[in-house]
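ARCHIVE CARD
CATEGORY: sequence design from structure
SOURCE FIELD: tokenized fold
FIELD CONTENT:
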């Protein structure tokens, strides 16, 4: 069975974001194929996609390497998200489906419940799902794709502090969902702009955190990561 290149791409991207591969490190087709249990063909295709996304660069005499973004490039990502997240929320207020709204409200209820209980383990994932659903509700595949790439890159370049007040943080999610439900694009935009600005303040660059990356790398360096496992996110 031929493993789709997009599945290999997802697996490599996830490992880059997790810090398995250090910035500037070489990514050889042979080693990647062995790690993910695939042939070199989907690896080659995946590397081309990741280069287009900015996670990989091709260097003379070295081949494919993990990109080494600058601090300015990292700062630009937060600024881009500050502009695009509110746009997505405004569009979602006009284009969302009942299914989108049901998921948004379900995530808000679950997030608020976990926040009140002081259980923060799942809050970051729930927040990511909320914003991913909000982007999908915009009805714009191009915008959704851009926001998804931004989230991946921001997770790669930044460590994120949890919100100082999780209950208030999830109340903001609830207000955004309410504005989307009412079709109030301007309110959805303004609430999301403020929410994103406050969230951006909790981001710290990972650059220079070599020790932290080493710990993550040691944990997974010797493990094989077959991409045809059911648990893989697509």
């Amino acid at each position: 069975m031929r493993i789709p290149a997009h599945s290999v791409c997802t697996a490599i991207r996830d490992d880059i974001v997790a810090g398995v591969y250090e910035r500037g490190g070489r990514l050889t087709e042979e080693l990647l194929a062995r790690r993910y249990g695939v042939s070199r063909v989907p690896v080659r295709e995946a590397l081309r996609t990741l280069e287009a996304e900015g996670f990989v660069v091709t260097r003379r005499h070295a081949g494919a390497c993990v990109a080494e973004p600058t601090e300015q490039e990292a700062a630009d990502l937060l600024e881009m998200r500050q502009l695009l997240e509110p746009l997505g929320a405004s569009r979602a207020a006009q284009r969302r489906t009942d299914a989108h709204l049901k998921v948004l409200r379900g995530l808000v209820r679950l997030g608020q419940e976990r926040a009140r209980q002081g259980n923060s383990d799942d809050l970051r994932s729930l927040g990511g799902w909320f914003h991913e659903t909000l982007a999908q509700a915009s009805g714009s595949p191009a915008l959704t794709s851009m926001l998804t790439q931004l989230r991946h890159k921001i997770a790669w370049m930044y460590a994120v502090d949890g919100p100082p007040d999780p209950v208030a943080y999830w109340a903001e999610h609830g207000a955004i969902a309410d504005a989307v439900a009412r079709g109030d694009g301007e309110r959805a935009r303004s609430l999301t702009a403020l929410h994103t600005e406050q969230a951006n303040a909790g981001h710290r660059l990972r650059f220079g955190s070599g020790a932290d990356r080493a710990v993550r790398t040691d944990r997974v360096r010797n493990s094989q990561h077959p991409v045809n496992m059911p648990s893989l996110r697509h």
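CARD ANNOTATION: The first strand starts at residue 56 and ends at 59. Residues 209-224, 228-234 have pLDDT under 50 and may be disordered.
SHELF: design records, drawer C
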